[in-house]
Amino acid sequence: MITAIANQKGGVAKTTSSLALAGLLADEGTCLAVDLDPQGNLTTGFGIELAPEQSTVYEVLTGVLSVKGAIAPTRSGVALLPGDISLAKIEKELMTQPHRFYTLKKVLNPVLAEYEQVVIDCPPSLGLLTINALAAADVLLVPVQCQFFALKGLQGLLETIHTVRQRLNPTLRILGVLPTMAETHTVITQETMKILRSQLQDIRVFDPVPKSVKFPESNMAGEPIHRYVRDWKLVQPYREVVRELLMLEK
Amino acid sequence: MITAIANQKGGVAKTTSSLALAGLLADEGTCLAVDLDPQGNLTTGFGIELAPEQSTVYEVLTGVLSVKGAIAPTRSGVALLPGDISLAKIEKELMTQPHRFYTLKKVLNPVLAEYEQVVIDCPPSLGLLTINALAAADVLLVPVQCQFFALKGLQGLLETIHTVRQRLNPTLRILGVLPTMAETHTVITQETMKILRSQLQDIRVFDPVPKSVKFPESNMAGEPIHRYVRDWKLVQPYREVVRELLMLEK
Ligand SMILES: Nc1ncnc2c1ncn2[C@@H]1O[C@H](COP(=O)(O)OP(=O)(O)OP(=O)(O)O)[C@@H](O)[C@H]1O
Ligand SMILES: Nc1ncnc2c1ncn2[C@@H]1O[C@H](COP(=O)(O)OP(=O)(O)OP(=O)(O)O)[C@@H](O)[C@H]1O
Ligand SMILES: [Mg+2]
Ligand SMILES: [Mg+2]
Prior knowledge:
The structure is a homodimer of 250-residue chains.
Chain A: E1 2-5, H1 14-28, E2 31-35, H2 41-45, H3 57-61, H4 67-70, E3 72-73, E4 79-81, H5 90-94, H6 103-108, E5 117-121, H7 128-136, E6 139-145, H8 148-167, E7 173-180, H9 187-199, H10 214-221, H11 225-228, H12 232-249
Parallel strand pairs in A: 1-5, 1-6, 2-4, 2-5, 6-7
Antiparallel strand pairs in A: 3-4
The complex binds adenosine-5'-triphosphate (2 copies) and magnesium ion (2 copies).
C-alpha cells in the first residue's frame, strides 16, 4: 500500500506525520519512506546526514540508479529513499518527457513486493513532484493545520485530486484529513474544526494531533514520535491512521 | 524600495509577515503588496475575495494587463496586486522565455514612482516565482521559525541568494532574518536562536515575533496585526523591521 502525505500549504506537519506513520508501520511490517521534498526534511527527520556523493531519489527518478541502490537504513527500522536539494532540478529535467507524471510509479513498481507499506512525503506545492506522488499512491492523507490559511487551500487541493483521479490514477482514495498542531482549547481551533467537518461531507476527519513541543524536539532528535515519547495522547491519532490503513489492506 | 519576503520552508509566517509589514508601511506612505503565491494567502489575508473574472498578478506577468489594471484596494490602505491558483501555470508558460527571471521586475518598473514601498510575498519554494521576486527586490527579509527543519533550510536559501546576486541582481541586500512564532520560554526556541545567531555571522537577526493566537485570528479577520490588536509586544518586532527599511531608504 502506497500512502502519499500531501498538502500544498506549507508547515502543516506533512513531514512530521510521514515520520510518525512510517515509524509505526515499521513496527507492523516492512516500510519504505520516500522523501520527495527538495528540503530533505524527512531525511534529516530520520537522523540521516547525507554524505556528499550519496545517492538520493533524484538519481532514481532520472534513471541513473534503481530504488534498491539508493535506500538508506534508519535507526527506527524504516527503509528510506532519501531526498535533497537536487530534486529541485526535476521539474525542468522531466518537463519534456511524455510520461513525466508516472516517473515515480515506474521506479517504485519493482520494490513493491518487498515493502508492505510505502509512505511518500511531499513538498508544499502542487507541482510535478506532488503529482508524481498522487499518480503512484493508493491512498492519500492530508494533514491540515486548524488555521484559516490552511483551510482556504483545501478546496484547491481537492480539485487537484479530482483531476489526478480522472487523468492519472483512477483508483486513488482519500484516507482522510488529519488536523494537526491542534490547540483544542482555542476558539480558532474549535471554529476551524467545525468548518472542516462541514466542508468535507464525505471525507473522514481523524481526531486531531495535539500541539506539543515534543514534535519539534523529536524532529531534532531524528526519531519518529512514538520512539521519542511515551505520551499516549500524542501518538494515538497517528495509531488510528495506521489502524485505518491496515484495515484497507485486507 | 522593493522588499521580498522569502523562505522555501513552509509555514514560517511569510504571509503573516508580509501582511504586518505592508500594513505598517501603508501608515508611513504608499505601499503596494504583491501576492506571488498560488495559494493566494496574502490576498485572503487582506480580506479580499476575488470575483471569478477578476484579474490577478498572473495576467500581469503574462503581459495581458498592466499592474495598474489589476490592483485591488484593501481596507488598510495597502494597494494589492492579488494572486490566485492560476499562478501555478507560470512556471510552464514562461519556461522557454529567455528573460523569464526578470518578468516581475519588468512589470513593476512602471509603477515604482507611485509606490514608495513594495512588499512581495513568496511561495514555499525556490522556483521561478521566488527567483522573480529576488531578481526584482532591493532587499530580502527571511522569516524563520525557531525550529529544527526551518534552520536546516537556511543554508540552502543563502546559497540560492548568493547565486541570484551573482547572476541576476547584484544589488540585492539581506535586510535580515526574522525569527517568528517564538515561544521564548521553551528550550528548543532558545537552542535554535543560539544556532541561528552563530550560523549567521554577518546577517542581522531581528528580535523574535512572539507566538500568539492573535496572528491566525488576524488572518481570518483580514487585517494586518497592528490594526487587529493593541498589544505592543506582538507588533514591535515588525515595527523594528519597518524602522530598518525606512533607514535604508535615506
Ligand atoms: N503536533 C505538533 N505540535 C507542535 N509542533 C508540531 C506538530 N507537528 C509538527 N510540528 C512542528 O511544526 C513544524 C512544521 O511541521 P513540518 O515541517 O512537519 O510541516 P510540513 O508540512 O512538512 O512543512 P513543509 O511545507 O515545509 O514541508 C515543524 O517544526 C514541526 O516540528
Ligand atoms: N507569531 C505567530 N504566532 C502564532 N501563529 C502565527 C504567527 N505567525 C504566523 N502564524 C500562523 O502560522 C500559520 C503559518 O503562517 P503563514 O501562512 O503566514 O506562513 P507562510 O510561510 O506564509 O506559509 P506558506 O509556506 O504556506 O506560504 C498561519 O496560520 C499563521 O496564522
Ligand atoms: Mg515537509
Ligand atoms: Mg504564505
